[in-house]
Fold:
Amino acid sequence: MTDNKYKDKNNSVNMPTTGGGFGRRNMAPVVKPKTFVKTVRRLWSYFGAERKTLIIIFIFIIIDSAIVLMGPYLIGRAVNTMTIKSGKVDFNLLSIIVIALLISYLADAAINLFQGFAMASSSQRIVKTMRNNLFLKLQKLPMAFFDTNSHGDIMSRLSNDIDNVSSTISQSVIALMSGVITIVGSFIMMIILSPILTVASLITVPLVFLLTGSIAKKTGRLFKAQQMELGKLNGLIEETISGNYIIKAFNHEAKTVSEFDEINERLCAVGLKAQIYSGFLMPIMNVINNIGFAAVAGVGGILAVESMITVGVIASFLSYSRQFVRPLNNLANIFNTLQSAVAGAERVFEILDAEEETEDVKEPKEIVESEGHVQFNNVYFGYRKDVNILKDINFEVQIGESVALVGPTGAGKTTIVNLLTRFYDVSSGIIYIDGVDIREYTRDSLRRCFGIVLQDTYLFTGTIKENIKYGNLDATDIEVQNAAKMANAHEFIKRLPKGYETLLSESGSNLSQGQRQLLAIARAILTNPSILILDEATSSVDTRTELRIQEAMLKLMHGRTSFIIAHRLSTIRDANKIMVIDDGQIIEMGNHAELINKKGKYYNMYFNQYNNSDDE
Structure:
């Protein structure tokens, strides 16, 4: 390996790293939030970037709370301007108090309007950060994560769960802060006005906390279950939309509807329970509040008869008592709502805590111009630590050679190329490209070496030109057209109404399978890879289209190291090397003629397929 093949920051060669493989079922346990408090604390950490806005909001909350606390006091003074015995009213003082009340109400409305706007803006920025973090995390997760999690459920966490957190933040934070201040302020004013009435009004507080705790405990579990069922429902919907053609082809509409009804029924049941239990809160709280008011009115009446307090004090106290209890009700309701938000946040944090792809080594190399020399040395791999899928894989591919991987389904053919591209890491052994352990390269530069054409071609929603340019975003229109010509795709593209600007629907479903494959080959050509991977690229097309695709692939393979996975053995007879994979092991290796003369596994596969083929 020469020095100009890779960039090494210290011009030193790193020692190979040991195997640290992972697979579908041997990922590290997800770190889940264990308690409500822990999840809320972690959620609160996202407010750090909004500290200045929150401080301003908090200052206005204090001002607003002071204004609100002034109202009952002014009402009491207004009542006391009326002398019961003489029947006289101090209209001058009453006018001043009424004007002061009017100003306080207008100020309260203006401050609430500002708080709502500021909090809505802040909450959207917070949730934007969460959504960005989650989407960025998805780009760093290994393939094993997506193999073991429903795509619809992942989408639900990115949309429904985060939106749930967003609505709760925007609605609850101000109410929470203002409620605490109002409770404390009202309690102080109540003690100042009448300690006896304060004691009378507090008899219902233990009932409030007891009720809140019992209901919140129940609704917390129900809201978590509701979010889980919603994720399952979204997963089924996503699969149903994506596989609608197959559902109709196999006449499984009724079965799909039945599955949907089953999940929807569970979602309805758990959602109904959650809403019923949370709905119990306010009516019962109102009953408790009325008991408290009755106690205050009764004790206040006795004190007024004994001339220990005035009627104005009773009026003020009843208002303060309402201001004291109402935030308690709101806090209880907020706590109930938080259960749903925390359930969504936990599901988001589960992904944020999931194990990422293993990091690059401390001083990774970058492949500048790979030659395409590949070597597997004693490679073992298993999706589970206790079960190896690949066992002692050893082979070498020279620069520019074409290698075909054949064997029964599940033998490990695709797993070999997944290891080569580092979609998974080996459990043990080493894979070399140009004489260097691939774990010493950065993943970005390693994957730039490959051009991949799969059996199931994925095209993004966008124009044909944009889909081809996905292989090289800096390519010019001329380069895109040249790639399409090499892939034998130019002619059919020009026949489309808008040519290269034709808009493709999801997955390119408005094109035939063969046309999609040709676009995939054009995309691979544009990447100008040194190593090419063709995974069953012609298995889903007719014979005529297959010939066009094969012609395009021969152009693409010219001068490049190529790995071809194929079940149709007639397509790989000209490969430089054919490896027969069975039960995770290479049982035969050689070119077509050598393996035919050997009369082993490949010989039997080839002639069984030849005799059963209509094309041969």
